[in-house]
TrEMBL record, chains A, B:
This is Citramalate synthase. NCBIfam families: citramal_synth. Belongs to the alpha-IPM synthase/homocitrate synthase family. It catalyses: pyruvate + acetyl-CoA + H2O = (3R)-citramalate + CoA + H(+). One of its GO terms (molecular function) is 2-isopropylmalate synthase activity. Pathway: Amino-acid biosynthesis; L-isoleucine biosynthesis; 2-oxobutanoate from pyruvate: step 1/3. GO terms for biological process: isoleucine biosynthetic process; L-leucine biosynthetic process.
Length: 516, 516
C-alpha cells in the first residue's frame, strides 16, 4: 500500500496542505500500517523540503517515507542532474522516479529520441541505486504507451529493470484506460518479467481507477499506489479508502493490518478535515451515506437480516448504518428509528403519522435532514407531548434608508405555560432578529437555550418558475455542544418557513434537555 | 440507455425531486435521446402518481416512460395483486418489475419457498404481458445470488423468460460485486440464454458501478440502467454521465445520438441544480475539475499537445479545459462578451471594472447567471448610464397572529428623475410585497414594467455553518416575453440581497426597453 496523498493528492483542485498537515497525515498513515508514504517532490517547492526535514525527527512504526522525482533530463548525465541529486539530499531510503513509457510523449513532450529516453531511465535508476537507495520506477502513461506501441512500452520497463529498479509501477496517467485493457497489459508484463515486482498507479478520469487497480492486482501487481479519498488532479487518483477494503474483504489480499481497517472511516474524514474539503457523503465504504437506507422495503428486510441490503458490515471499516426518513419510507424506517417511542406498526397513530409524513413531503417538506421536526411531529401525534411555548403573535420590521444597511427588528409574544412574554430584539437580517427575540423570550423560563447554537441555515426555493410567490423550504441545524439536530419549515413566505424551523429547533433542544 | 434517476436516483440521501422537477428532467432526458425513462413506482407515493398523470400530456421524441414495481406477493395471484394492477393504471407501455434472484433473500426476506418465488416471477411477467405491456425483469441481487447458488439464480432468470420478459436485467443490488465476477456471470447467462436481451443495473458500494456496467456490456449486455451523476441510495447507482462517454468513445458502442453528447455536462449540472445538490467538481467527464490542470509540467505539455495529459477532448462532452491559477482567461471572456461596450483591458475604467468584478466574486457574487447585474455594473463604471430610479427608503412589515398566515406589507420611497414617489403594497411573502410595491411606484413613469415578469427566484446560503448570520445570494430571472435576464444580490440579510436583485431586474428591463 503506497500512499501518495501528500504528493499527487495535493495536485487536486482546492487541495492545499501545509507542511504541518502533511506531517500529521503521514503519522496517521503510519499508525494505520501503510507501507510507503510519498512525501513530496524535493526541490519543487519549499513546503516539500520542509516536510522531508521535519519527518526525519519522527520514528515511524510501519511506513517508509519516499521522495518523488523524474529521471535525468535528455542529454544530461544523472550525476549532473540537479533534480536527481535533490532526491539524494531528501534523506529518504526509497526514491520513486518517473520516466516516459509512451513513444508519443518522448518525441512530442520531451523532444528527444526513443533511444535517449531508454538511456535516461536506465542510468537514472542505476545512479540512485549506486547511492544505496531502493528505487521504484513509475512508467508514466504506460497503458496509453502499451496501446500505441507495446514493444516500446515494454522496452522502457526493461530499461528500468536493467538499471536495477526494485519495482516497476505501471501508470494510467491520463486515467482513461478500461479494466480489461489493464488486466491484459499487466498480464503481459507479468509474463515478460516474471521476477520483477509490479505496481499500479491509476487515475480516475473514466471512473475506473479503483476497478483498474484491482484488475492489476488480479493480474499480478503487488504494489498499489493511490490517495486517501482519491484526492488528486482532475478526477483524482485511485481511492485507497475503496481499494483497501475491496482487496481485504473481497479478494482476501493482505493490505494494511486487518484490525486497523476499523479506523478507515476516521482516516477519510481526518484527511478531508485537514484538506478543508467537504466529505463526499456517497463515498463507498467511508461516506456518511454509504450505509444509509431510505427505501421502506430495504429497511424492513434489513431489520430481519442486515446482509440483505448491505454488501459488508459497516463496522468493519468503522462506519455505521443509518435509516433515513422520507416519503419513500415504509413504517419500518419509523419503527427502527424511534424504537424508544414504542410506536406500533398496526396502531392508528403509527399509520396517521406516516400518512402525515407523506403528505408533508409531497408539499415540499423533507425530513431526512430534519429529524428534530419529525420527532416533534411523532410526539404530538402520540399525545404525550407538551409544547414548551406557543406563539401568540410575531412582527418583523425591516427598514432601509438610502446608502445604509437594512435595520431588522423582531417583536414576539409567546405563551409559556400560564405566562405571556412579549419582547423584541434586533438582528443581522430578519431570521437572526427572530432568533434573538425568541431566545430572549425563552431565557427566563429555560436558561439552557443559551447553550443552543444555530449551526447551519439552508434555503431551497421549490417549484421555481413561480417568481417570488414560490414555496420555500428552510432547513436549520442546531447543536447544544453534545449533539446536533435538523428542523424544517415550508411556506410561500420565507419568514414563516424560517419561523417554523426555528421554533422546532428550540422546542427540540428543550425536549432533549428536559425530557418534556 | 435506461435512466432511473427519477426512481432509484431519488432514493439517494438528500435527493428530493418535486413532480415538476421530474417532468423537467424527463423532458431533458428525452431530448438527449435516452431510450427509457423510469418515472417512479406507481402507488408508492402521491408524487409518483402525479408524475405519471402529467407526463402523458407530453409527446416525447425518443424516450419511452417506464413504471417500476415488484412481482406479486407470495401466495397471491397476479390479477389480485394491488401493486401489479397499479402498474396497469399508470398509463405506460413498459413496466419493469423486480423479483428476487438470491435464494437467501427468498427464504429470509420474503419468507417463502424457492418454488413459490419462481411462480411469482413467471406469472407476474405473464400477467403484465397479457395486458399488452413490454416487460423488463430486474433480477434483484442477481450477482450475489449467482455466487451463492448459481443454479437458482439462473432458474429465476429463466422463469422470467418463460413468463415472456422482453429483457432480463441483472442487478448488483448491494453494489459489492467486482468486475471480473460480473464479466463471468454475464458471460454464463449469455451462453445459457443466447436469445434473451440482457441488461445491467449496478450500484456503487465498491466504487465499481461504472466498471461493472462496462464489463457486462463487454460480456453481451445491451441495456444499461443507471442515473445521471450516479445519484442513488447509499453510494449511488451506476453513473450514466461516465458510462455513456466510456461506451461511446472508448468501446465504440451506440448509446445516445453522438451529437447529443456535447450536452452531457449541461445535463449533469441541470440535474444537480434541480436536486439542489452541489456538483462534484472531480466527477469524471462532466465535473468542473475534470479537465483542470494544476501541475506546471502538465500545463506546459498541454500547450504543445492536449493529448499528452487528457484522455479525451473535453469539448466532446461539453466540458472545458481549465488551467488553474489563471483567472485571466475568464477576464478575456468578459472583454469578448461585452465588445459593444468597447471596454479596454488597459484603460482605467477597464481595470476598475475588472477589479470590482474580482472583489465581488470573492465576496460571493456570481455573474455567470446574472448578466443583467453585470452589464449594469459595467455601464455604471463607464459613466454613460443614467439610473431609472433610486431608492430613498424601504420598510417591510411582517405580522403573524397565532393560527393565521403571515401578513406582509412593503413601503417604498423612490426618486425617479426629479420626482419622489412613496407607495405601499402587500404581497405573498416579503419579496413579493417588495416586488409589488416597486412595480406600483414605477408604473406611472414606466408603464412597460407591467410586461416584466419574475420567472425564477433562487436563494443560496454561502458560507454555511455561520447560522442565521450567513451570507445569502439571491438570483432572480426576469423576462419581458421576448428575452430573459438574470440579476444577483448578496448580503447577510436576505431582504437586502433580494432587493438588490429585484432593483437590478427592473433597471435592466427598463434599460433594454428604453435604450437608457
Amino acid at each position: 500500500m503506497y500512499d501518495t496523498t501528500l504528493r499527487d493528492g495535493t495536485q487536486g483542485e482546492g487541495v492545499s496542505l501545509s507542511a504541518e498537515d502533511k506531517i500529521k497525515i503521514a503519522l496517521r498513515l503510519d499508525e494505520m500500517g501503510f507501507h510507503y508514504i510519498e512525501g513530496g517532490w524535493p526541490g519543487s517547492n519549499p513546503k516539500d523540503m520542509e516536510f522531508f526535514n521535519r519527518i526525519q525527527q519522527y520514528t515511524l512504526k510501519h511506513a517508509v517515507v519516499t521522495a518523488f522525482g523524474s529521471t535525468c533530463r535528455p542529454g544530461v548525465e544523472p550525476a549532473r542532474d540537479a533534480n536527481l541529486n535533490r532526491l539524494l539530499e531528501a534523506g529518504v531510503k526509497v526514491a520513486t522516479i518517473f520516466g516516459k513509457a509512451w513513444d508519443f510523449h518522448v518525441t512530442r513532450a520531451l523532444n528527444t529520441t526513443l533511444e535517449e529516453n531508454l538511456r535516461m531511465v536506465r542510468e537514472s535508476v542505476a545512479y540512485l541505486k549506486s547511492h544505496g537507495l531502493t528505487v521504484f520506477f513509475d512508467g508514466e502513461h504506460f497503458f496509453d504507451g502499451y496501446k500505441a506501441n507495446a514493444g516500446y512500452a515494454l522496452e522502457v520497463v526493461k530499461a528500468a529493470v536493467q538499471g536495477g529498479a526494485d519495482a516497476v509501477i505501471l501508470c494510467d496517467t491520463n486515467g482513461g484506460s478500461l479494466p480489461l485493457e489493464v488486466f491484459q497489459a499487466v498480464t503481459r508484463v507479468r509474463e515478460e518479467l516474471p521476477d520483477v515486482e509490479l505496481g499500479i498507479h491509476a487515475h480516475n478520469d473514466g471512473e475506473m481507477a479503483v476497478a483498474n487497480s484491482l484488475m492489476a492486482v488480479q493480474a499480478g501487481a503487488t504494489q498499489v499506489q493511490g490517495t486517501v479519498n482519491g484526492l488528486g488532479e482532475r478526477c483524482g487518483n485511485a481511492n485507497l479508502c475503496s481499494i483497501i477494503p475491496n482487496l481485504t474483504f473481497k479478494l482476501g489480499c493482505p493490505t494494511i493490518p486487518r484490525e486497523n481497517l476499523v479506523y478507515l472511516t476516521e482516516l477519510s474524514r481526518y484527511v478531508y478535515e485537514l484538506a478543508n474539503l467537504n466529505p463526499a457523503a456517497n463515498q463507498p465504504y467511508v461516506g456518511e451515506s454509504a450505509f444509509a437506507h431510505k427505501g421502506g422495503i430495504h429497511v424492513s428486510a434489513l431489520m430481519k437480516e442486515p446482509g440483505t441490503y448491505e454488501h459488508l458490515d459497516p463496522a468493519l471499516v468503522g462506519n455505521t448504518r443509518r435509516v433515513l426518513m422520507s416519503e419513500l419510507a415504509g413504517i419500518s424506517n419509523l419503527l427502527y428509528k424511534y424504537k424508544e417511542l414504542h410506536l406500533d406498526k398496526s396502531s392508528p397513530e403509527g399509520r396517521q403519522v406516516l400518512d402525515q409524513l407523506k403528505n408533508l413531503e409531497h408539499c415540499g417538506y423533507q425530513f431526512e435532514a430534519a429529524e428534530g421536526s419529525l420527532e416533534l411531529m411523532l410526539r404530538k401525534a402520540l399525545n404525550g407531548y407538551r409544547e414548551p411555548f406557543q406563539l401568540e403573535s410575531m412582527r418583523l420590521i425591516l427598514q432601509m434608508w438610502e446608502g445604509q444597511p437594512i435595520h431588522s427588528e423582531a417583536v414576539i409574544k409567546l405563551r409559556v405555560g400560564e405566562e405571556v412574554v412579549h419582547t423584541a430584539a434586533e438582528g443581522n437580517g430578519p431570521v437572526n432578529a427572530l432568533d434573538n427575540a425568541l431566545r430572549k423570550a425563552l431565557e427566563t423560563f429555560y436558561p439552557e437555550v443559551a447553550a443552543l447554537r444555530l449551526l447551519d441555515y439552508k434555503v431551497r426555493v421549490l417549484q421555481e418558475k413561480a417568481g417570488t410567490e414560490a414555496q420555500v423550504r428552510v432547513l436549520i441545524e442546531t447543536g447544544n455542544g453534545k449533539k446536533t439536530w435538523g428542523t424544517v419549515g415550508v411556506s410561500t413566505n420565507i419568514i414563516e418557513a424560517s419561523w417554523q424551523a426555528l421554533a422546532d429547533s428550540m422546542a427540540y433542544g428543550l425536549l432533549k434537555e428536559h425530557k418534556l
